[in-house]
């Protein structure tokens, strides 16, 4: 295991937001964090990075106490891709991605300029953004901006990447492109934790699924073990049938109008 989170707890306004959450992630795997709105998914990502001062959690990365590391060292190790928000900042795509180099730059960034440019060029190429380098970030579509956020995280050259709903608002082809990038990062040995709402995409692509509900881990395992009718009914309150993808055998959730699905689920 490369990332171990032990007993993460956070209480806000006397309400438990995270209640004794412990997870362990292996590198080289695509790990999904699922759960209904308000389950605590984004909060857990922030707690892992030490961005929630009121939280209590022991977080180890590759055997070291992650929160005890200097801030700059943490920024070299871990990248967060938050839910995409529109920007009006007058910054071009190249410079937005270059921000990912900050934790690696010394007092004199000229010393590392050639290397930084090479890393940024590689991040732009990997996310299919090479042709966008000189475009103002604010003129890109939502999906294109999402890829810029991922490119910035790649430019950071982290060993741990936390992504908050990276496929949100993306069309089908863009979702596949993002998932291919994430698969490639996992295959390269990085540790990834990705919050997901699209459970069909989760079932099709991820190796390991952790489900949060009301701030607690309620299920964990392979997608086919977690994403099943009882779980969907209990945690999401939705009746659904689970089919098997004819190409891969992975679960596919059919969840049409509930009046058609009130009977026993087909497995
Ligand atoms: N500063 C805060 N004060 C009080 N409650 C908060 C605060 N920040 C978050 N919360 C609450 O914590 C809970 C978990 O929020 P979080 O954003 O982690 O959920 P999530 O699982 O990521 O949800 P979503 O899928 O809707 O993005 C929510 O009920 C939210 O209202």
Automatic annotation (TrEMBL):
UniProt KW Zinc keyword: no
Organism domain of life: Bacteria
SUPFAM superfamilies: P-loop containing nucleoside triphosphate hydrolases
Family classification: Belongs to the ABC transporter superfamily.
Keywords on record: ATP-binding, Nucleotide-binding, Transport
Protein name: ATP-binding cassette domain-containing protein
Domain ABC transporter residue range list: 3-239
Keyword Nucleotide-binding: yes
CDD domains to which the protein is assigned, alphabetical: ABC_Iron-Siderophores_B12_Hemin
Annotated InterPro entries: AAA+_ATPase, ABC_transporter-like_ATP-bd, P-loop_NTPase
A Pfam entry, by short name: ABC_tran
A single GO molecular function term of this UniProt record: ATP binding
